[in-house]
Each structure stands twice: as C-alpha cells, then as structure tokens.
UniProtKB/TrEMBL annotation:
Organism, scientific name: Olsenella absiana
Protein name, UniProt field: Branched-chain amino acid transporter permease
TM helices/strands, residue ranges: 6-28, 40-58, 64-82, 89-108
Cited Pfam families: AzlD (PF05437)
InterPro entries associated with the record: Brnchd-chn_aa_trnsp_AzlD
UniProt keyword annotations, A-Z: Membrane, Transmembrane, Transmembrane helix
Length: 109
C-alpha cells in the first residue's frame, strides 16, 4: 500500500467512525422524542451482545478432554462474583481475563 492509499484509508475510517458516532445525535437530537424501538433496543441489546460473546468464547471448549473447561468455568465464576460484588463491568471483565490467563499459563499448562 502506498502512503497515499494509507492516508486515504485512515481518513475514510475516521470519517466512517465520526458519522456513526454523530448520526444518532443528528437523527434524535433536539426536541424530538426517541422512538420506542430505539429505546427498547438500547435496553435489550447489551445483554444480548454479551450472551453472544460468551457463547463465542466458549465455542471451542472441549468438556471431554482435560482440563474439562475448568479454566473457563473458574473465570466465568470470577466475572460473575466480581460483578455481583462491585457492579463494575471493567473490573469484572479484567478480573476474569486475568484469572483465565493465569489459570491457563500456570495451573493448567
């Protein structure tokens, strides 16, 4: 890729990002009320997306072979416990990730 192509790619990516960030404010900003479907989607999509991410992360876990999914289950338990304790998503995700990585690298290697 030439330098001109790299610059064009970066500019297009930046423009696309800005459009997707500003479009909701242009469409629903001001005095207009947010449509009910948008409010509903804003309420239900975060949980649905996390459920899909969990399923995606666990898709290759082989429960028949050692360690039988133990690192994944322990990390999930840590995520749930941290979230119930502190209600902080960043802490929950980081704690679960660190737990999983330590288990895979040290305990179940």
């Amino acid at each position: 890729m030439t330098v001109a192509e790299q610059v064009a790619t970066i500019l297009l990516a930046a423009a696309a990002t800005m459009v997707t960030r500003f479009l909701p404010f242009v469409a629903f900003g001001g005095r207009r009320e947010t449509p009910a479907i948008v409010t509903y989607l804003g309420r239900v999509l975060p949980g649905a997306i996390f459920a899909i991410l969990v399923a995606y992360c666990l898709r290759d876990v082989d429960l028949a072979a050692a360690p039988h999914g133990a690192p994944e289950l322990i990390a999930i338990a840590v995520v749930v416990a941290l979230h119930l304790w502190r209600r902080n998503m960043l802490l929950s995700i980081a704690g679960g990730t660190v737990t999983y990585m330590l288990l895979v690298q040290l305990a179940f290697s």
